[in-house]
Amino acid sequence: MTDFDEYIRQSEPDRQQRAYAWQTAIGLQAVDGLKPSEYLKDMARRHIEGEMTIDEVREQIKSYYQSKANREPDDEGKQEADKVSANITKILSTRTLDFSTNGYISLHRRIFEGVLKFAGKIREYDIMKKEWVLNGDSVSYLNWEDLRRAIDYDLEQERNFSYAGLSADEIVAHIARFVSGLWQIHAFGEGNTRTTAVFTILYLRSIGFEVSNNLFADHSWYFRNALVRANYKNAQKGIDYTPVYLERFFRNLLLGDQWDLRNRYLHITPSCEWKNQPNLSETRETGQAQDKFRTSSGQAQDKVHTDNPDIERLVAVIGKEQMSVKMMMEKLQLKGRDNFLRLYLFPALEEGFVTLLYPDKPRHPRQKYLLTVKGLALLSEL
Question: Is 377 within the bounds of a domain?
């Protein structure tokens, strides 16, 4: 995916973020074999340049297909790719996330609005899908009667999970398990992988990780096949659930590893050439991974760190609790609210150590603050 690389290489942050969003949104269409039109790419460039808003782009695409006189054989696929790409770009331009079953279902509706008749509706039938990576076999997806209960359970378990004291390896393994389980539910008739990917990006941002890079754009098909392998078991063939491929995807995304993310490594009967998936960044003789996280600048560092002592004090005070501004100020023995916000809270939010309990409602009357995964990792270091 190189369509918008010239913008990503530039230093202007707003253009970079818009380019990253378009790269990801367009790249995710590959999981269903869809490619956007050149018209969409032109509209995307105009949005990245600041000439159009994302809503203007969406309306322009809608009008384009309504008024198009000469129909082409692949118009239906291009129309889906174009509209869904624009919808995902709008979603990724915000950092809000409704971490609930209704929020997850609503995300599917927002992604496929104007494309699928059943956008935002849980399926009411059982499914199976033949997979190339499984030699035509299918993952066992959840039966339709239990879909909502399963989403409720997975999200509640994740909401109550504590990342405090975990190593980078343990955090990545847990995130892979959570995302894998959510995808296996397969709540919708179509669009499950794209919905899970967008939800994952928003969730990782909400818990302090920076995921503004092209991994989802360039390796969306690998991401889907890794989810398939993580949820496939066949005792007759001696095949067990294999989450390692998905973990390697997240290691590249979050830790800066360089696993070779090619789909042939994931096939259940690979040739000798494709049996061992290499880590292209592996230069250490011991072969052991270091604890490291990806910073907001996209660089990997050995441990979670901040040079701001005020952030460290705030992280230590919040700990594993949820606190209001008043509670944090009392714990820190501070009286000036403006100084507290400027020196403590805003920097901690900006660097991803602290998040809001109600991120989509900043002025919520019962608003409180808690540590992100990154914040909990810093707490364990302190």
Answer: yes
- Residue 6: count of CB within 10 angstroms of its CB: 12
Contacts of 291 (CB under 8 A, 6+ apart): 167, 168, 169, 302, 303
The partner residues of 370 in beta bridges, in order of sequence, read 355
Of the CA atoms within 13 Å of residue 286, those in its CB half-sphere come to: 3
Do the bridges between strand 293-294 and strand 300-301 make them parallel or antiparallel, or are there none, so unpaired?
antiparallel
Kindly report the CATH number assigned to the domain that includes residue 255.
1.10.3290
Please, which contacts does 232-238 make with residues 24 or more away whose CB atoms are closer than 8 Å? 232/131, 232/134, 232/137, 232/139, 232/268, 234/137, 237/268
Assign 115 a pLDDT band (cuts: 50, 70, 90). very high
Residues 151 and 291 in one domain: yes
Q: Give residues with Cβ within 8 angstroms of 83, minimum separation 6.
A: 58, 61, 62, 114, 115
Structure tokens at 202: 């928003």
Task: Name the domain boundary from 268, 288, 303.
Answer: 303
> Do 268 and 135 contact (CB within 8 A), yes or no?
yes
b/e burial code for range 318-345 (CB count within 10 A of at least 16 → b):
beeeebeeeebbebeeeeeeeebeebbb
> Is residue 284 scored above 80 in pLDDT?
no
Q: Are 340 and 332 in contact (CB under 8 A)?
A: yes
Residue 303: predicted pLDDT = 54
Q: Which of 255, 215, 244 is nearest to 374 (CA)?
A: 255
- Residue 107 resides in a domain: no
Give yes or no: residues 149 and 292 share one domain.
Answer: yes
Which of these, 308, 310, 312, 290, lies nearest to 382 by C-alpha position? 312
Whether the model clears a pTM of 0.85, i.e. scores above it, the answer is no
